[in-house]
Amino acid sequence: METNKSTGSGVSTTRTLTESALLVALAAVLSLYAVFKLPNGGSVTIGSMIPILLVSMKHPFRWSLAVAFAYSMIQMLFGFYAPPVENLFNYSLVVLLDYLVAFSVLCLAGPVYRALRSAWSVRFRLLAAALFCFSLRFVCHFLSGILIWAVYAPPDQPLWLYSLLYNGSYMLGEGFVSGVILFLAGEKLMKYYLGGA
């Protein structure tokens, strides 16, 4: 079997590319089916980030970073929200904080999952890795809410509280839905996708 140099596995490059592309496509499709969507961006989906987390858990960091970055670009193409103050700085912050960095952090699920290998069961390693990535994504959106979207905050509300409530509402919902899916089906997904690793 041909060794995939980019991922360091014994799987062919063609198979790895195809598998990753299918999971990115699945994540993109799942992101279109929102349980609810907020007016200025942000939604609760039916576990749209789980396929990207799985790629991260199966493949080395460099490969999963490339996949997560590709997914962040797709998310930006699907639902870019122009900043309320349209200048180059704000556009750059939106691109970075709401898309590129926010979704690229999903590549860190694998390192967290593997670091906990000897300590916890598969189910709780999955939940911990997902929680870590979701928390980092929330931080990105929280900063974005303060730095970019502050004009939408009620005049009598602190900016940090506005961003916390707005971004926390959908990120908490997204984390809950994904957490339930991973808790109920995570071990089966891992056995099917990773061979029980």
How is this structure best summarized?
This protein has 197 residues and is mainly α. It has helices spanning 13-32, 50-58, 61-79, 88-104, 109-115, 122-147, 159-194; strands at residues 34-37, 43-45.
The run of helices and strands is HEEHHHHHH
Helix content: 55-70%
Percent in strands: under 5%
> Low-confidence parts lasting 5 or more residues at pLDDT below 50?
none
Query: Overall pLDDT, averaged?
Result: 89
Explain the overall architecture.
The chain is mostly helical and 197 residues long. It has helices at 13-32, 50-58, 61-79, 88-104, 109-115, 122-147, 159-194; strands spanning 34-37, 43-45. Helix 1 packs antiparallel against helix 2 (50-58), helix 4 packs antiparallel against helix 6 (122-147) and helix 5 packs antiparallel against helix 6.
Layout of SSEs?
Elements: H1 13-32, E1 34-37, E2 43-45, H2 50-58, H3 61-79, H4 88-104, H5 109-115, H6 122-147, H7 159-194
Antiparallel strand pairs: 1-2
Q: How would you describe this structure in keywords?
A:
single chain, 197 residues, mainly alpha, two-stranded antiparallel sheet, 4% strand
